[in-house]
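The protein record minuted underneath.
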Amino acid sequence: MLFSNFELNETEPIYIQIKNQISDMINKGLIPNESKLPSTRELSDIFKVSRNSVILAYEELKAEGYIYSISGKGTFASSKEVSSNGGWNIDWNNLENFYCKTANEMDIIKNEIEWRDDLISFKSISPNGELFNIEELKKSFLNRISLEGHKILNYGYAKGYKPLIDYLLNYMNSKGVDTSNKDILITNGFTEGLDLVISSFTNKGDHIICENPTHNTAIKIFRACGLNIVGVDIDKDGLNFDMLDEKLNQHSKSPDSKIKLAYITPSYHNPTGIVMSPEKRYQFYNLMKKHNIAIIEDGFNEELLYSSSHIFPICSLDNFSNGVIYIGSFSKILFPGMRIGWILADKALINKLESVKRCKNIHVSFLDQGILFDYLQNGGFDKYVKKIRKFYGDKFNFAYECIHKYIDSDYILGDGGLHIFLKLKNIDSRELLTKCYGDGVIFMPGDIFYLDDKGYDTVRLGFSRLSYEEIEKGIRIIGKNIDELS
């Protein structure tokens, strides 16, 4: 109770004691500005005093500007004009740890050019929300609420919503993965999945090997956790396996530099858009197996493989073994606001991660998981994927043609998906971005995806949310500015 500790003395008038108690609490911030006070009748009951004493106290407080009354609504605190006891300033810059500092330094939302609605923006590789079947999603929401009632609005399980887990296990089966010794943990998208794995199975100073360039979010997590990142170049021919083999052999000679994990995105690699061939997936898997390095496979945008038949994920080579952790998500093609992803791995490993997940944030929203499951199982996803493969495939081909027409580049990378990667001819992409920004066009400079300075002359162009007219106009402006800088 707000005034439970108030005790009256016999030396001062009661109304003065009440007035002093309330003004003191307002000064200390214990009664916030504009918060409602008890009525005079209620307060007289609390203090066990006459109502007249409370009325007199309130009048004094009004006269001094501590409170005010609104007819029919009550009496409220007014602390705006009351002087504070002085500021309190914590130096949070001095208190922040390495993780916080790294996350802020690498936050591209804070540190890159901001999006405006008057810009042609090639920065995003998010799905086009106009393709979402909102009516089907509404049906799934109503269906889950009808079937589950209050249960789906209560606490759930860290591992995830079982019907969704079972669906995803079958879904991974359809990709050629034997899941008999595997299990799934539902996560808040890919980002949490990777963070769970890295924070659970690495220590500061450990080594991890990955493509160079690679997913900026992955780099941020690795560096925030204090890992030593060993990069293997991607060029116009894809991943450099000679360099990979050399670095594996080099690091295997010293226990202090032994590589602990490998991170790879074999399908529509971010940022290059390359799809690794089945032969190279097999080669990569066997190299990691030879050196006993566990693989983290990023299942990025596998569903968009429209230019060829399905290519198996690397984890399908690991059947009956436990060397691959697969992190999947629909976020780049479907309902990214739901933030639902999954980790597929050995049952014993998932059991460990389940406890880590429970420690961090208990579980992913069961309502969101239930809605997504209902949508997936009712066939909405299959129809949607067929539609978007053609939609994004046509856009990719159009953007590719525009780049050939308007941009003089060293080479172009991309096998489809939602973006294209360019290696320019000794043009600084940051300087180019500044010029294009003045003309109303922005893109993602490639250097944020690199572990070194090799990407200063590279660009990632995302086109998923742009019209054909915007794609051509934007690429033409980029090409014009490249010509001016050449």
The CA atoms of residues 278 and 311 lie 7 Å apart. The radius of gyration is 30 Å.
